[in-house]
Design a protein that fits this description.
106 residues, mainly alpha, 81% helix, 0% strand, rod-shaped
Length: 106
């Protein structure tokens, strides 16, 4: 039967360091990867939050557009200008939303 000390000695001969050093290095690398993954997860959550806010803003503008379009009668020049501005704002938000890359769930 091979004991742990023999394995450690063989590892030292082959790699120039004991198992404890190798394991410590592996654990340090795992901790660094966990920190990076945490940062990525935090970033993804922020992107998703911002994207949800953007979608909400688009919906709010679309609701205003629908209200204007469903109002009875003809729009005054001022109302038509306001409607044109809202339509332009909504189109800009749609373009911005389309340019936002999707973030897969972690």
């Amino acid at each position: 039967m091979i004991d742990l000390e023999s394995v450690n000695n063989l590892h030292y001969i082959l790699f120039g360091e004991g198992l404890d050093s190798s394991l410590s290095l592996i654990l340090e690398r795992i901790e660094r990867l966990e920190k990076k993954m945490s940062a990525i997860t935090d970033f993804a959550a922020k992107v998703e939050t911002n994207f949800a806010a953007l979608k909400s803003a688009i919906q709010a503008l679309d609701d205003k557009i629908t209200a204007f379009q469903n109002s009875p009668g003809t729009l005054s020049a001022t109302d038509q200008a306001a409607l044109d501005g809202i339509v332009a704002d909504s189109a800009a938000l749609v373009t911005q939303a389309a340019a936002t890359p999707a973030v897969p769930a972690p």
